[in-house]
Amino acid sequence: MRVLVAGIGNIFLGDDGFGVHVVERLAESTPPDGVRFADFGIRGLHLAYELLDGYDVLVLVDAIAGRGTPGAVSVIEAEMPTTAPDVLDAHGMTPDVVLGLLRKLGGTIGKTFVVGCEPVDCSERIGLSAAVNASVDQAVDLTRGLLDEIIDCPAAS
């Protein structure tokens, strides 16, 4: 089983860089067999092409607005879109656009999970807000737990 854990987001837009910070923390330890930790930042197009390399499961880590109180971390299962947009903004590719592009390129992925955090401030600045920064460790633990489930029970992934 091959699993890609991809941190996405723009570190120059405050809390939007959440996924990058979490994956950097994850990468401080050795990943389980078959798991790759990678910082894709704003390179959604690159991520779509990377997925063509044959991953079974994708875990995206990102700031996702509208899912709770600021700093709240959650895990959702994403579905593969049936279409991709005709026009792509390589610097603004959301998870659904990346997955849509993957489909358009002829690729597929078994399952996709998103470990997301409710942002506080995504204005132009470097660094996470206090609430989102305090959630990084929780997101790391949640991601590790999710990986344990995926690896221990591959039929469920």
Summarize the structure.
It is built from five helices and five strands; from the N terminus they run βαβαββαβαα. It has 157 residues and is of the alpha/beta class.
Describe this structure in words.
With about 160 residues, the protein is of the alpha/beta class. The chain has a single domain (about 5-155), classed as HybD-like (Rossmann fold). About 30% of the residues lie in helices and about 20% in strands. It has helices at about 20-25, 45-50, 95-105, 130-135, 135-150, and strands at about 5-10, 35-40, 55-65, 75-80, 110-115. Strands 2-1-3-5-4 form a five-stranded mixed beta sheet, with helices on both faces. Helix 1 links the parallel strand 1 and strand 2. Helix 1 (about 20-25) packs across helix 5 (about 135-150). The longest helix has 17 residues, at about 135-150. The radius of gyration is 15 Å and the shape is globular. The termini are close together. The relative contact order is 0.25.
Outline the fold blueprint:
Blueprint: E1 3-8, H1 18-26, E2 35-41, H2 44-51, E3 57-63, E4 73-78, H3 95-104, E5 111-117, H4 130-133, H5 136-152
Parallel strand pairs: 1-2, 1-3, 3-5
Antiparallel strand pairs: 4-5
Helix pairs in contact: 1-5, 2-3
Q: Which terms would index this structure?
A:
about 30% helix; Rossmann fold; globular; about 160 residues; alpha/beta
